[in-house]
Amino acid sequence: MISCVQDPPFTTGLTPWAQTLPEHISPTAAKAYLGCSLKFYFERVACIRKPTPIALHLGKAVHAALQAFHLARWRGSDDSPETIAAAFDKSFSDLERDEGPVNFGNDIERDKTRLDGLRVVAAYLDSPEAMKDKPRAVEVLLKEEIPGLSVPLVGAMDLIEGDFTAVDFKSAAAKPDATHAAFDHEIQLVSYQLLIEAATGETPPSLDLVYLVKTKTPQIIRVASPPADARRKRRVVALLETAVEGIAAGRHHPQPGMQCSWCQFKNECLTWLPTQQVPMRRAA
Ligand code: SF4
Questions:
Q1: Is residue 33 part of a domain?
Q2: What's the chain look like in SS3?
Q3: Which residues does a 6 A CB cutoff place in the pocket of ligand 1?
Q4: What is the pLDDT of residues 237-284, one digit of tens each?
Q5: What parts of the chain have a pLDDT lower than 50?
Q6: CATH classification at residue 171
Q7: Best label site of 59, 170, 208, 284, fewest CB within 10 Å?
Q8: Do 101 and 143 sit in the same domain of this protein?
């Protein structure tokens, strides 16, 4: 097995080889654990490497291009389409080198994916959603103690606008349904609100997702949801804590569902037996 190479907040907080409790929980890790705790085990505890799915690779490169744009807005430096396209290309190649291989069938598929990425990035820069003002923060990593959570909450927000609106960018193949999108990303959005409130005392007026949809004519769609009330926050904290407790207890079992269609660990999953659970000890 190969040791995971991960950067916050995309770690589980686990130190796999020391078998300790999570030092923190991120909304990404919690969602992954709650989605399928066995897949979480294969990916983040056993660190079994698989070729990167194309959609994930493209999403990361698009994300890097948007980050370059928002940082340029923040610094007042070059944010021209040419510079941002170059940032996309660099990330596309660097990720292949550092995290690859990517599941490209051939060079034609690779070229098409790269061009798709350049088109959605250009569409974003050309859209009303492209940030015109100076953002409050870009790629801000926060780690905060949250009441009801037994470990600190960690999250990296793509963008915080001037009025404290938290914005997360998503790449998608098809136009999202607004209600479903907000529900699907509830843990992430409310976690960002909890982190902003704990760090600044301010409540974001909105929790937003901006979708970059790579249809033939790319679409840029903002899905805004209101800030969470106390009940919604309690619900999300309970979900995060459920993940922490499961990870700490080494509870990893198959959770068959729609996600199995695109899971890369089907073969490993078929060999699972309950005795393979890995109990975690609390760190000294
Ligand atoms: S095949 Fe399904 S149940 Fe098995 S690890 Fe993957 S997602 Fe989980």
A1: no
A2: CCCCCCCCCCCCCCCCCCCECCCCECHHHHHHHHHCHHHHHHHHHCCCCCCECHHHHHHHHHHHHHHHHHHHHHHCCCCCHHHHHHHHHHHHHHHHHHHCCECCCCHHHHHHHHHHHHHHHHHHHCCCCCCCCCCCEEEEEEEECCCCCCCCEEEEEEEECCCCCEEEEEEECCCCCHHHHHHHCHHHHHHHHHHHHHHHCCCCCCEEEEEEECCCCCEEEEEEECCCCHHHHHHHHHHHHHHHHHHHHCCCCCCCCHHHHHCCCHHHHHCCCHHHCCCCECCC
A3: 36, 38-39, 254-256, 259-260, 263, 265-266, 269
A4: 999 999 999 999 888 999 999 999 999 999 999 998 876 445 444 433
A5: 1-3, 5-18, 276-277, 279-284
A6: 3.90.320.10
A7: 284
A8: no
147 and 222 both lie in a single domain: yes
Domain for residue 260, yes or no?
no
Calculate how far, in angstroms, residue 233's C-alpha sits from the geometric centre of ligand 1. 29
Best of 41, 259, 270, 272 for a ligand 1 pocket test (most atoms within 8 Å of beta carbon) = 259
Same domain, residue pair 211 and 232: yes
CA distances from 191 to 143, 185, 194, 236 (A): 11, 10, 5, 7
What range does the domain containing 109 cover? Answer: 54-125
Do residues 114 and 141 share a domain? no
Q: How far is the centre of ligand 1, averaged over its atoms, from the C-alpha of 271 (Å)?
A: 11
| Overall number of domains in the chain | 2
Q: How far apart are the CA of 85 and the centre of ligand 1, in A? A: 36
